[in-house]
Design goal:
By secondary structure, the chain is mainly α. The chain has 5 helices and no strands. It has one domain (8-132). It is 79% helix and 0% strand. The N and C termini lie close together (7 Å). Keywords: Membrane, Transmembrane, Transmembrane helix. This is GtrA/DPMS transmembrane domain-containing protein. Belongs to the GtrA family.
């Protein structure tokens, strides 16, 4: 109950997570577009953009979306999650590029698809594991 009151419950967290996600996605897509414009290899561009968006999202998610204090354990959990998601998102991006027909829209659509998959997985894991308030674990279902 204390966690819900402090953080606005799951809907409050989800709303703030969406705002953070938009900011992270703008950073991610901007870096991706810039790297592609500079003729960086598409997979390296996606990796670089993911890292930049992830760093920004961590700070915003921890302080604002989930409203929890930091700590080495939380940062380590976040890094582990995003380490796994790095390969999931890069794999999804590569798979989408491999199966989509050629066209000017294939690269941006592959980014959107990989970002959507990553965002969904991230919210669930951040809420349930990384940013769970360990001080107020209760059986209260409300």
């Amino acid at each position: 109950m204390a966690t819900q009151a402090r953080s606005g419950g799951v809907l409050g967290q989800a709303g703030r997570f969406v705002v953070v996600g938009v900011i992270g996605a703008l950073i991610d897509s901007g870096v991706y577009a810039l790297a592609l414009h500079l003729d960086v290899w598409v997979h390296a561009a996606r990796a670089l953009s993911f890292v930049c968006g992830t760093i920004a999202a961590y700070a915003l998610n921890r302080r604002w979306a989930f409203r929890v204090s930091g700590g080495a354990r939380r940062a380590t959990s976040y890094a582990a999650l995003y380490g796994v998601m790095f390969f999931v998102i890069l794999g999804a991006n590569a798979l989408a590029l491999a199966v989509l027909p050629a066209g000017w829209w294939a690269v941006p659509l592959a980014w959107v698809l990989s970002q959507g998959l990553g965002t969904t997985c991230n919210f669930v894991m951040l809420r349930l594991v990384v940013f769970r308030d360990r001080r107020s674990v209760t059986a209260d279902p409300s």
